[in-house]
Amino acid sequence: MDTEFRSQVPAVTPAMLSDLRIVMRRMADLGFTEASVEGALGLRPLAYRRLSSILPYRARLMAHGALGIAIRFWLLQEFLSLEEARQGLGDHAISVLNQMGWLHVTSAGLRSRVDLYPCCGRYFFTDSANNAFPWPEQVYWLGYDSYTLAYCTPRQPRARALDICTGSGVHAVLAAAHCEHSIGLDINPRALEFSRLNTRLNGLEAEFHPSDCYQAVTGQQFDLITLNPPFVPTPNQVPELYRTGGDSGESVTRRIIEGLPLFLRTGGLFSMSTEAPRRPGESPVDRMKEWLGPGWGIVGLYKQDFSIEEYILGHILGSDVVEADRADEFERWLDTYRQEKITSMTSAQFYALRLPEGSPGWSWERDYPPPYTDQSAFLGDWLAALQAWHEPWPGDFQPRLHPAVRQIYWADDCALVEWNGTHWFPSPTRLEAAHTRALRKALQSADLTGNETYVRQLGCSCILTPP
Ligand SMILES: C[S@@+](CC[C@H](N)C(=O)[O-])C[C@H]1O[C@@H](n2cnc3c(N)ncnc32)[C@H](O)[C@@H]1O
């Protein structure tokens, strides 16, 4: 069992905090951002790095000077010589990490007991992802699910934000930059210690409370609720808090979604990144509809599907299971998935918009290219378009071409739409005959009767402007 990474989260004095901020400024000056780290590693997203690839990473990072050293130290838990540490991190880092008990010093050199992640222009400390085996209170590092939620949550100013299952506090901290009041909740006290430190490190304010789901905010309402829950369907006695979602994988997710009618204000947004089970004849959005009841706009954006066998093996290999027990453990997991009728897992981003009283509910599901950069502005506009196009249109409304469209190539029974810089689905997008006919009518200001569904779909894809 690998215990050297299980260090305390220390009480940070104002002097230590000011030193840590100097270290963060140095990291910013070095260009320690998602894009530069991915460029230097030759890997995107950075969350997919694997210690088994350490040799190629080392070889690539040699060419990146101080940035390469910082990546080896913060994200690969490599031992550095004192000279390298000085060159890459600076003397402040060595001194403050040493005071915090986060420097592991051996005859092999110095290494970090924690990870440091860049995300959307901010920095986050967490327990190390590179620890050989997980332990129950291990605080979740920034995985691709964490980055997905950070990149896909619209950032317009709001009054009150709540992040449940906050882990390192990443989404509560990102919300704190745009919301008047931000609260993070987690059942794991160790996670709250990291969250509080990360909030101070980033010079923001947010509150954190120990809480099983909504327990600590009973009676309160919010305008934004974010969630990256523990989502892995797991048989009994697998204890890691950051991933164990019970037999179905949705034990926490379901409780939180069922609570939204109480805790999310009208006009509010729920944004969730998760890996959801797929079962025959039922989509994850169908389950959300059932848990929420009427009056919601629900969106599912599917990034990637995994077979259950690969999924289970990946999780067992990351567990504290000795090789001799692996085959039995694999069967035990497989039984759970079969009993739950799970046929595959989908990695996805979901939204639930709480619609004004009396609005008809709607839902929208589609594949979505995995996001590698911040898509929040674009997705915020898109959600607004979805909502507008599902409301009744004004009687005199005549749709026009959306500014996101650069060009349309027309053929007799199809059209190709090319997009304007804005990130959108495959460019060019091919429209089928019915959509092409509806688009011609809309652009010729012709009568749209009988074509409303196709026109609405064109609007929801940002080909036509919202009513
Ligand atoms: C996958 S991690 C996500 C962490 C962070 N939100 C992120 O995106 O990186 C799930 C988190 O849920 C927390 N958790 C598990 N069960 C919970 C519960 N019943 N109530 C609140 N938090 C819970 C875990 O401690 C863990 O920090």
What would you say this structure looks like, in words?
The chain is an alpha/beta fold and 467 residues long. The protein has three domains: 14-116, no CATH class; 144-376, Rossmann fold, CATH 3.40.50.150; 392-460. It contains 16 helices and 15 strands. The protein has helices at 14-30, 34-41, 54-61, 65-75, 82-88, 91-100, 144-152, 170-176, 189-201, 251-263, 284-292, 308-317, 326-339, 376-390, 433-443, 452-460; strands at residues 103-106, 109-112, 114-119, 122-127, 158-164, 179-186, 207-210, 222-227, 264-278, 296-307, 344-354, 362-367, 405-410, 415-419, 429-431. The strands form four sheets. Strands 7-6-5-8-9-11-10-12 form an eight-stranded mixed β-sheet, sandwiched between helices. The protein has a three-stranded antiparallel β-sheet with strand order 13-14-15. Strands 1-2 form a two-stranded antiparallel ribbon. Strand 8, helix 10 and strand 9 (264-278) form a beta-alpha-beta unit. The mean pLDDT is 93. Bound molecules: S-adenosylmethionine (SAM). S-adenosylmethionine binds at residues 140, 142, 146, 149, 164-168, 170-171, 185-188, 191, 211-213, 228-230, 241-242, 252. Residues 140, 142, 146, 149, 164-168, 170-171, 185-188, 191, 211-213, 228-230, 241-242, 252 line the site of S-adenosylmethionine (SAM).
